[in-house]
Amino acid sequence: GLVSLLAASTYPERVSALVLISSPASLSDKPAVAEMWEEVSVLEDPLDRRFVKEFVRSTSPESVPDDFVEMLIDESLRVPARVWKQTLRGLIDTDVRANLERITAPTLLIAGDEDAFVSDDQQALLDAIPDARLALYKGVGHGVHLAQPGRIVSDIVDFLTSTTSSR
C-alpha cells in the first residue's frame, strides 16, 4: 500500500486507478510496527521458523487453511534476513501523508473493520485522497484479502469497471 501511495502521489499522471487493501497512511506511528522492528532488526540467517510462523499467523485470518499458512511460511523463510530488515526499515521510513492530495486517480480503499493495524488510517486516507471511497469489511481483520478473496475480486472488478466506464 505504501509503495502504491508513493507511486500515485509522485507520478499521478501515470496512475489511472488505485486499489489499496489494508493500507496504512504511515507505519512510523504504529506501536506494533515498532515492536516488529525490534524483532526484525536482529534477525539472522537462517530465519527462525517460529518467528516466521508467528508473523504469518498474526497477519492472516483464522479461516486461512493450515496448508496455505504452511506455504506462506515456507515462502517467507526463503527471504534472507537482510531483505526483511531493509524492507521493513524502508516502509517505516516512508511517509507519503503530505503528498496524498496529489493523487488524482479514483481510489478504492478496502479494509476490515477489526483491523487494529490500519483501521485508524482509513479515515486519514479518505480525507486526504480527493477521489477515494472505502469498502469496509465487517468482522474482518488485517488479512482481508485472505479472509474474503471472492468479495475482494468482486469489489475490485466493480470499481475498475465503473472507473473505466466513467472515463
Low-confidence regions: none
- Overall structural class, as computed from helix and strand content, comes to mainly alpha
Span between N and C termini?
Answer: 24 Å
Helical content class = 40-55%
Overall pLDDT: 94
Strand order of the largest sheet: 1-2-3
Number of helical segments with 4 or more residues: 8
Radius of gyration: 17 Å
H/E topology pattern: HEHHHHEHEHH
Q: Count the E strands.
A: 3
Overall 3D form: globular
Beta content comes to 5-15%
* Sheet having the most strands: 3 strands, parallel
Overview of the structural elements:
The protein has about 170 residues and is mainly α. The protein has 8 helices and 3 strands; from the N terminus they run H-E-H-H-H-H-E-H-E-H-H. It has helices at about 1-10, 30-40, 50-60, 65-75, 80-95, 120-130, 145, 150-165, and strands spanning about 20, 105-110, 130-135. Strands 1-2-3 form a 3-stranded parallel beta sheet, sandwiched between helices. Helix 6 (about 120-130) links the parallel strand 2 and strand 3 (about 130-135). About 25% of the residues are buried.
Write the layout of secondary structure elements.
Elements: H1 2-10, E1 18-21, H2 31-40, H3 49-58, H4 66-77, H5 81-93, E2 107-112, H6 119-128, E3 132-137, H7 144-147, H8 149-166
Parallel strand pairs: 1-2, 2-3
Helix pairs in contact: 3-4
